[in-house]
User: What shape does this take?
Amino acid sequence: MDKIITISRQYGSGGREIGAKLAQRLGIPFYDKEIITRAAKESGFAEAVFENAERKATNSLLYSIAMGMNAYGNQEIGFTHLSLDDQIYLAQSNVIRKVAMEGPCVIVGRCADYILRDFENVVHVFIWADLEYRKNRAITQYNLPANKAEEEILKIDKRRANYYNYHASEKWGKVENYHLSIKSNYIGIDHSVDCIARFIGYGEGGSAEKG
Amino acid sequence: MDKIITISRQYGSGGREIGAKLAQRLGIPFYDKEIITRAAKESGFAEAVFENAERKATNSLLYSIAMGMNAYGNQEIGFTHLSLDDQIYLAQSNVIRKVAMEGPCVIVGRCADYILRDFENVVHVFIWADLEYRKNRAITQYNLPANKAEEEILKIDKRRANYYNYHASEKWGKVENYHLSIKSNYIGIDHSVDCIARFIGYGEGGSAEKG
Assistant: This one.
């Protein structure tokens, strides 16, 4: 088991919990949005981002076009010329690449599948679920008010899709971006963990068809 | 195991072989495009379709719009007013619904996931694979000439997508249409069969989270 597993997930699908349990099961580190953001803030490289954030914030895409730049995380771009969003993305990308180079781990969100697309030992997983199940989870687990849950879920998913589509210049939730995609409410959280663990095991099984 | 399993697949991904082996493993009938088409031809209902095909062929979408009809397999539409494509689709849909009502089975292709969308005991699976793997399978298994394989694969996938997008008015390969999506060349044909069989077993496990 020398894999880095990235998990992309619809809000309320249990993807984060599945990732955490998978990491625990495999005995490898777990990184989610909060951990990556904190690490990015704490890194010397990124300090400037958060200090200069307000001052340098611009509409990143328009600004990048105006400056004739590649907006998609190209590190050759002068760092202080990037928008706040792009600077944070860059700092987070560096953290993701760094932890991936340290060894096997589970990374949830933050375009990790795209950022690590050139790594060979990665397995990308997508978790989704029916809206009713996600509403129920959002209300019971994340304390969203029942009358706002659906609106909030759709808003957060829209934000995740936009974030991915912008930074990865790929479509979020496109089936070909993931080795394995699971409807979590059909088999439940623990079986989803089983399913991913087995899938990775199969992939490491040395079958002639492995690719 | 009382499930009906539908398998959608990219050309050359091994989806048909996976479906056939899964049906064999589970001891349930297997239906692919050829079987469904033959059954549709042999059914009394469909006989007229193939006889009258040439005579009645029209551009189905434009014709349906002109006649103020729903083109998406609505059986209330006068049968002989439909285009050849729509008539064949309708006859195949009837076969698919008929075999699904007879009991557990595996059905590959023909928009079966969409046609059976209101059935409760269905599991929808999508199989995809890297282009290189598919080219290799197309050449070695389906005897496509090496210099034409890529072009042919892309053409057939385009045709499958168009067929699905037209009849199902949904996007082919959209992750939320499938309970499970697998990159077959990562784990191989036999492990893909294992993976689906286990997934279905998990779904029947009676977990509180089952949905």
